[in-house]
Amino acid sequence: MKVKTSVSLSEELLAEIDxxxxxxxxSDLVETALRQHxxxxxxxxxxxxxxxxxxxxxxxxxxxxxxxDYSVDPFDLGDDVEILSDDAPAxxxx
Length: 94
Known about the structure:
- The chain is an all-alpha fold.
- The chain is elongated.
- The chain has helices at residues 11-21, 25-58, 66-69.
- The protein has a domain at 11-64.
- It is built from 3 helices and no strands.
- The longest helix has 34 residues, at 25-58.
């Protein structure tokens, strides 16, 4: 359900919105932009939290890993980080 709301914007921003809005109109463009922004905010918070947890782990005296031996930042591995896990599912032979 959509709710009508009022937002004050600068004339310059409103002109840009109108140029970009096209057929969907201002509301669709603004809603899409805000949804994307909020996703990015949540992602940044999650990454910050994950990075803090990783830094605590890396600073732990008990922590030993090949990842450290090869100077690879686990965040650079992206989705492939699971292949380093002992409990990762076995990969099928191609």
